[in-house]
Amino acid sequence: MAENNEAVHLSENYIDFLFLQSQKKHPVFLRSAQKAIPDKIKIHYHRSYRKLEQHSIAHVLFSMFILAGLVDYFILTHYSQITHIISRVARAVLSTCLSPELIQIEAKPYLMYNAYIVNLPGRYPSLLLSIIVALVSIVVIGVIYYSKKAIEPKRVWPVFIFFITLVSSLFFIFFPGFFPYDLEIFSEMYIKTEVGIWVIIPFILTIAFLPFRMKLLSKFLVIMATLFYSIVFACARYIVFLYFLRSATYLFMALMFFMFGPFLDFIYIVGSYSLCITHSAKKNQKDVELWNWLY
Amino acid sequence: MELAILILRTYTVLEILILLVYTVRHFTFTFNRIFGEQRLYYQDIVDSELDYVTILVPMHNEEKVARDVLTQLTQIDYPKDKFEVIPINDHSKDGTREILDEFAAQYPYIKPLHRDTGGRGKPHGLNDAMALATGNIMIVFDADYIPPKGIIRDIAICFKDPQVGAVMGRVIPKNTGTNMLTRLLDMERSGGYQIDQQARHNMVLIPQYGGTVGGFRKDVALSMGGFNPNLLTEDTELTFLLFLKGWKVVYANKAECYEESPEDWGVRARQITRWSRGHTQVMLKSLKPLLKSKHLAFKEKVDGLLLLLIYLIPLIMIIGIPVSLALFFLGEMNIFDFIFIFVLVAAYNSFGNFAPFYQIGTASYIDGVTDRIKLLPLFFFCFLFNVLYISKGAASAFLDIILKRNPEWQKTARFRKQNG
Is residue B412 part of a domain? Predict the structure, then answer.
């Protein structure tokens, strides 16, 4: 401790010296020196073998119970009300552009209770539309594929999008009477999948947060905020899907489900995780007490 | 039709199970690294009797980077009479030869090997260089690497253990701040080395020799017939050959060396395609011997199996896309009710195969990274990119066998701007 104080003292003298020098012509040097020298006094563990102290089993179980268990309990006992609210909002919004008589809210049994969905009549694509979409898809895939030798991520995504659209349009060209879904089934699938996502969010984030030293309340708030965002996003996307499928026909149902469905939900889940860990990393990097070495 | 549906369903369920196994694997590694006891390598050994080492630097048209790596090697902290540097000029058409000759004239321990005839590629070059090498310990750096002063000792000292056949150090990208790709690759590398490799070392599993920033015993490599020029990942081959013969591979997390990571998506695509193709070649060659090996413990076999199969996962996933579409149009979407979510979770966890988000997040946290962690969601957009090109590489490896063709070695392009 005495050595530390001495080091601080010496470095402050040194900074004073630099400050005097800086009066002449080295202000930039001074700024970096002021910041850098006190940091040098602390010797941090090298990143190669530093680690965090292991949580006790009781802590892990308690975290899992509070963060995953209780939140999941809330979801599993309230998804009926949540899906009902989503369906009511969707009906209210869709009523502004579609005839309200067409839009029904229906209860579908799911797990222990009912999940509520919006049902409205959809449209099948015409043969001409299917052929046009198939041709456009082939052209776009070809153009993207041959535009550059290497396909960047921003080009790979459209390829997959147009590939699924192509498969769908070919299905409607050759087997138009065999499409096994309507908007009611799609609605049911979508809502049930979203309930599943809400159950998974607390579970994934609780496990992913386990290594990090954050207050339980902070973790709880992040999980709840992510869940809230997920519910709002699910509602907004539901409205867009229903409107789009009603207007643009079932031709795009596969695309909606596979590329813009639950797949996208993981972006904001990881987004929440990354923001939280960034905050924790900034707070804890310089905390010598936090890090252990080897054992 | 019912049989077809049964097959499609079975495929989907198997895909989910495989992805879940890899999810558990990544979680295990992540928790081991952040909480578990860390196993050091041999960094604390102090021995004045340092082995004579030969440093090999394979080069093909490396005029942009050759000068840097050689300059670094002239400044290393290792007795000058205990090492030699053999830069391997492999059919270069640019100014590489002149640079090597210039250094050779100045430093007697730099002994260039100019290869203008014979097969091209890293395995050919390494085989020829081993024939010339004086030392038994070979330490390899790719030409775009910037070896720090103490790294030769850090790697060489491990060979004091007679059971060690190869050593792998840690690769750190130097050009991280260049663009989004380099930032993402830095995080991906962090996940791969800080978590994957160190956890494997901790758990006494199968740390991988990566072909650069590492070393191996020449006599052992030669006793195995040298490097197979028809394989694109000679490093993975050596790893498994060593383990199958009872040798150990050590991972030295502190032996850090800077590299230049690809700055262009096209280069990255070719790089991961080559890795995948080569890794799958080794998988096809090593799978059976691995399972039958008497030198490996059960947990090493399990880890080796998962490591060998890792580049097949994207191919399994890409086949899963038409399978899922077929089930969708056959009206079999009900099987996705809840399970589909697990597919997505597992797929997302795999994240194009290199490291899932929590592994990269944890590795970055240990590494002291802060703001860059916010880029994690962007890995999602690399997902299909990785899946596509890794699948392409893995499929090529199978086609190589069917069509009885030998793949050609492709060098990774360099981006370094020359000084002056």
Answer: no
Higher pLDDT, A227 or A37: A227
Q: Within this chain, do residues B21 and B95 fall inside the same structural domain, yes or no?
A: no
Within an 8 Å CB–CB cutoff, is residue B27 touching chain A?
yes
Q: Which residues of chain B have pLDDT under 50?
A: 350, 352, 420
CB contacts, 8 Å: B194 with chain A: 47
Q: 3-class secondary structure for chain B?
A: CHHHHHHHHHHHHHHHHHHHHHHHHHHHHHHHHHHCCCCCCCCCCCCCCCCCEEEEEEECCCCCCHHHHHHHHHCCCCCHHHEEEEEEEECCCCCHHHHHHHHHHHCCCECCEEECCCCCCHHHHHHHHHHHCCCCEEEECCCCCECCCCHHHHHHHHHHCCCEEEEEEEEEECCCCCCHHHHHHHHHHHHHHHHHHHHHHHCCCCCCCCCCCEEEEHHHHHHCCCCCCCCCCHHHHHHHHHHHCCCEEEEEEEEEEEECCCCCHHHHHHHHHHHHHHHHHHHHHHHHHHHHCCCCCHHHHHHHHHHHHHHHHHHHHHHHHHHHHHHHHCCCHHHHCCHHHHHHHHHHHHHHHCCCHHHHHHHHHHHCCCHHHHHHHHHHHHHHHHHHHHHHHHHHHHHHHHCCCCCCCCCCCCCCCCCC
User: With contacts defined as CB-CB under 8 Å, which chain A residues touch B376?
Assistant: 270-271, 273-274
The last residue of a domain, from among B304, B334, B352? B304
Give the domain extent around B354.
2-36+307-402
Nearest-neighbour CA in chain B from A22: distance (Å): 31
The count of structural domains within chain B is: 2
Residues B315 and B201 in one domain: no
Across the interface, whether the CB atoms of B330 and A180 are under 8 A apart is answered yes
Predicted pLDDT of residue B347: 56
Look at residue B414 and tell me if it is in a domain: no
pTM score of the predicted model: 0.88
From B286, B304, B322, the end of a domain falls on B304
Do B62 and B143 belong together in one domain? Answer: yes
Residue B46 lies in a domain: no
Give the domain CATH number at B140.
Answer: 3.90.550.10
Tens digit of each residue's pLDDT (9 = 90 or more) over A63-94:
888 888 999 999 999 999 999 999 999 999 99
Establish whether this prediction's ipTM goes over 0.90.
no
Residues B355 and B261 in one domain: no
